[in-house]
Design brief:
By secondary structure, the protein is mainly beta. It has helices at 3-10, 78-83, 155-162, and strands at 36-43, 46-62, 65-76, 87-95, 101-110, 113-122, 127-134, 139-140, 144-147, 175-182, 185-201, 204-214, 227-232, 239-246, 249-259. The protein has a 15-stranded antiparallel β-sheet that branches. The chain is built from 3 helices and 15 strands. A hairpin with a 2-residue loop joins strand 5 (101-110) and strand 6. The N and C termini lie far apart (38 Å).
Amino acid sequence: MKFTSAFLILIIPLLSLNDNDNERVVKNTSFFKGEVLTYKVHYGFINAASATMIIGDDLHQINGRDCYKIEVFGRSVGMFDLFLRIRDTWGTYLDSSAMVTRKFYRKIEEGKYRKHEIVEFDQKENLARVRTWDKRKKLWKPEEVFDTPDYVQDLVSGYYYLRTFDFNTIEEGETIKIAAFFDDEVYDFEIRFDGREVLKTKLGKIKSLKLTPLMPENELFDGENSIRVWLSDDINKVPLKIKAEMFVGAVEVDITDFQKGIMMFTSFI
């Protein structure tokens, strides 16, 4: 599990299934073209990295469907950059109507670790086609094909789909199962809704939704309830803060800025 992988898993979304053969239509009033979100990652008082999430200014056609192009950039900063240089790029083509992934890619540079892959999703046939770059041979490896569930999400598209969800339809303490395709596997997650509170952020005090992703046993996070996530309790559903207890220590991710889009925090108090 690598740095930006951990960041994205913290904000992985709720997944809705639909038995209709036709493409679903998901109402979205939360985000649009041109939006930019910026975060900082820190261990205590030490700033370790920054992350930026950008929705492109234009729609792109993927298999005849209009899609947002969304990219996530993660990089180490300051003294942390001297010990572990991180330059990660993740991207998705998110269907602007069905709110489901059509194509996903990532280019990872973390220390000496490198990975470059492209995943094309066939949502009608429930397949993911994966191509991985062979750095040593300087060519693409043979395509691999994997079965996927209905309306599977990648880690980036899933975050944006989450922002369309109406949390007024679930009760505090309710746990919801989710699914996403990552590293050639389908992962089933559970997220518990833990109610609401007012959160102090750099952007001011904001009414927020509290979520706890229930983590399976792994080598990165320390326990099932090791992660807490706060989303803005308004039309935008923006991730505001993440706290994670990891085996390497406590890590926090905080929003620092937003630009464009409809980022109008109606819940400021």
